[in-house]
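your task:
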Amino acid sequence: MRRPVDHAALAAAGYFAELSVAAGAEARFHLSTRDPDARVAVVRLDRAPQPESTAWPVTRSGVPATVQSLDLGAFLTITPPERLLSAAWTLALEFRLAAAAAGRTLIASAGATLRFADDGALMLEGSAAATGQILPVGAWLNARICSSEGGLSCAVTRGGETLVALSVASAAPAPAAILIGADLAHIGPTMNLGIGRIDLYDAAGQTVAAWRFPPVGRPARLAPVEGGGVLEIHNAPAFGLRSRRWDGSALDPRLRPEHYDAVALHDDDLAAADWQETHRIAVPDSAASGVYALEIATATETTRWPFFVSPKRRQADLVFLAPTFTYLAYADERLPPERFPWLCDDAGHRFAKANQLTSLYDTHNDGSGVSLASFHRPLATLRDDYLYPLCGAPHLLPVDLHLLRFLHAQDIRVDILTDADLDRGGLARLEGYRGLVTGSHPEYWTAALRDALDGFRDSGGHIAYLGGNGGYWVTAFDGDTIEVRRGLSGIRTWNSAPGETHLATTGEPGGLWRHRGRAEHDLLGVGLQAMGFSRARPFHRTPDSYAPDLAWLFDGVGNAPIGESGLVLDGAAGYEIDARSPRWKTAQPARLLAIAEGFDSGYVTDSDATEDGLPAPAHGEMVLTQSGSGSMVFAASSVSWCGALPQAGAMNPVGRITINLLRRMAG
């Protein structure tokens, strides 16, 4: 259903065609605003607390600044082959209602529509209307709609039982198009339903087209397995789901594809906003790598929409890996206040809820988990002034900017790459760098990203893991979209259904990297141990931290607690904290440098990380792992760590350790 953007929370919103842009290239932006006179400029975000102006030119396209629309809801369009010329035809399909369907349309074509009345009863509309009964939610059903000289008829069956039989006197013409899950005018909400096999027959009962959904892949157009015609798939429904043939005998769709030849349509699916390009930013060839933003000033407010400039050639010995997959996973989280108590307000969440945008932490309107997220939509919570309502503090980008500003003030130079850059370019993108620095919450990793990080360490590169909950979820990246299946364990907001843990994008198992034999502990030395939104705790040094060979790391630190205050929950160890695990071993010994304890009951431990599966007391462990390649991996083990860095002109133990570490890494 197409609807104009609701700008009550944000007067201007938009997205970049690519979040990462190389120096010398163009950044392309797509804007929606209620202010036609909105002013734009490019600013830099990662050097000072206040944005720094640039002189970069911004070119307007011929598209006026106006309120754009969002076309929400997945549906299918069948274009029959030319041989279907008569008024005698039959469409058969498997379907499963995922939610009450009152007022929605199941099948629509000229002269033949099968929809649900306001009371939920199924209706067949031709020149007249025939009304059936309310269908069960959650069961696989078969629908068969037939047009012949005798009129138009429809039957819905379950197994051998006929649930609905409807007919009207007039036949329908051969359809030019058939919509499944949406009305012809596309003005009403789409349906929440599963769709399985689809077959189209001619007057003689011969198959003219048959479609089967692949268990691996997310096509936008699907050729028939028999016959002609085209099936168009709109707005990225979820593929690789259990069909009516699923019996639990195979949990890998690649083994029994006929058990997973179904898709799920949701009325809040959104593949991409598909707005017209409105602005182009010419990034100078000599531009320094960094975090920039298109600043949009309307009559009522100013918002900044960030993008990342990667270097044309390496400019530093260290590289900061911007966790844009994690940014995207959290972006536009609905966080309804009736379910989650808000400790502060943020316009991005109100914008997302008003426009029915979703994050990978949300569930669809039918209660199923959201598994797909596109960069090509307004990421309203990806802002330098963002505050996370559940903890009343900055989260993600603003915390990472705090780190980058601290490094700039200390004259520690870093280039910037995004995880999308590393996914596409692999280990070659890290050539020449001595060390890699993560952000505060690098939670979502693809296989290619993990391969590149492993290869970097194994070739002698150092890693400063300055966050928490890193490398946790298996993620697939396809064009502008990431996919996550939550699996059945780990700390999460929704569960995948049994058998639906594989990523449709690639076919690989989803869930936690631990369960793929690539635990985050093996690379980082630690993994998620607990999470909570109550007050953070400081770290305290362990005896091993006083060893002579570690004096360089703790130079100037002393014996005081490490991180007694900070931007994120007022401490260095908080939000999500990591530790070594007796279950998930590391290839190299991880030396325990400091520990954070004494967390209150607001922190929930990850029982998956314990040896016996039982909860353990929440604690965070700062560790250092050194490998035979000469590399070292430092783990701060906390989402709050970067937020505990001092402001410019000040110093504290968190800042001193970070400086000592990165200068050592840079050589």
Q: What stands out?
A: The radius of gyration is 27 Å. The first helix runs from residue 324 to 330. The mean pLDDT is 94.
